[in-house]
Design brief:
By secondary structure, the protein is α/β, with parallel strands linked by helices. It is built from 17 helices and 22 strands. The chain starts with a strand and ends with a helix. One of its GO terms (molecular function) is RNA endonuclease activity. Residues 260-375 form the Beta-Casp domain.
Length: 524
Amino acid sequence: MTISVTFCGAAGGVTGSCYFLQTDHGNFLVDCGMFQGSKTVRELNYGKFPFEADRISAVLLTHAHIDHTGLVPKLVKAGFGGPIYATEPTCDLLTYMLPDSGYIQESEVERLNRRNARRGRPEVTPIYTREDAENTLSQLKTVDYHEWLPVIDGVRARFWDAGHLLGSASIEVEIENGDKDGKPTRLLFSGDVGTGEAVFNEAPEAPAGVDYLFVETTYGDRNRPVMTDEERREMLRKEVQDALGNGGNLVIPSFAVARTQELLVDLAHLFNRGQLPPANVFVDSPLAQRATDVFAKHLKRGDAQALSHPKFHMVPDVQASKQLAQVTSGAIIISASGMCDAGRIRYHLKNNLWRPNCTVLLVGFQAAGSFGRVLQSGAKHVRIHGDEIEVRARIRTLDVYSGHADQDMLLQWTKNRLPVARQIFLTHGEEGARAAFREVLMAHGIEDKLISMPMLDDTVTLKKGKGQPAIPQARLSGEELSRDDWHNLYAGTVTALSEKLRSLETAEERKEMLEKVLRDIGSV
């Protein structure tokens, strides 16, 4: 019996989660996520899969976030026709999230192609379309927590509440290996581990005593202060009050699923107690609106009612979204994407970043190379849709809404899974976070030889047999996954050059500087 796993995403980086498992019984995936971050990383979404889609028998999904599910329609389009297993809330969310993702692909490509036509460049095609995503939905199959699910012959799986998002799961997999003792090989994929403190989620759970453990490490290098609901709301109150008191708008880039709903519940609480000045909250994300309906379906009555507070206004269409550009003060605008890389948030940033009385509040993890990370790092000039924008708005970060466990929580979760007989694989984290968490594990008595940090497209054989697993070539290095790329450097260089030119007093000085730059690059 041969059993192998290939790390096709979130290995050396945070996004694109995808494990490709090969066995003598057949092949299956755990997650099939979209890459986010720098343009170099995002380009992986357009390339071929490092496996044959039509030879995949099943897909198991840990939760609905796009970095774990976003390439499933591409997989189906490439020939996968098997079942896609997930919890009922995950399936409900994906009913809206995947078509929305397809629509975003089409919209972004349409805009890019208009620019390419003017530049004389060839057209590009979307990763998949809304129709492709809708064609995927019939393959979704719901599963219950704690119940064994037959995946393929000789393989079964069980889902455990990961506490990260409505419907999120850690997935336990058992594979019959033909040993004389009859014991299967047991694997546990953490998915994204929650905090146990989030607005909607319970504490994460999972079994102990597995052979192989796959652990996310998004926040493996840091801890957040432990706080009560009231303390979290007080931090939000202060940020909102300061922003509105500054006389401008408050723009919140927010992931449409979970983060937006958590913010709405806390804002409703603060409004109801008179702890915030009167302000209209515009939720400008069609996906957030539909996801809010799903949350309301699965939540207890009080939280569901909070999501429909009279101060909250769902922006119905593109025309209404454009009209928000006329609102220059006193509004709270919540829009996706949370990392500011696509969607309507780009337009709201374009309209507000240059205003010194406005505030941008980042409330989620910003991956390396993402536009959100650029703002978070203090950029003074940025480019949006080809236009240069001077950043005059206040850029703030409120890191208390993350659905990811911090270092101490991850450590406790991992220790609760012990003993691990064979290997602990650290995944879903940038290199610094993974390395820091590895040191913490060793400091708590876990042997170095038990810990592995696989890179993108690494294949590990868990059990050797007669078969030989397919081993793909690495598409990117770990360094490329966890840092800004040349596209980021180019954008920074162009804006820095423009800023320098403006600082010079005469046309002759500007001409001399440009001639020097051209000489340095060999163009004159």
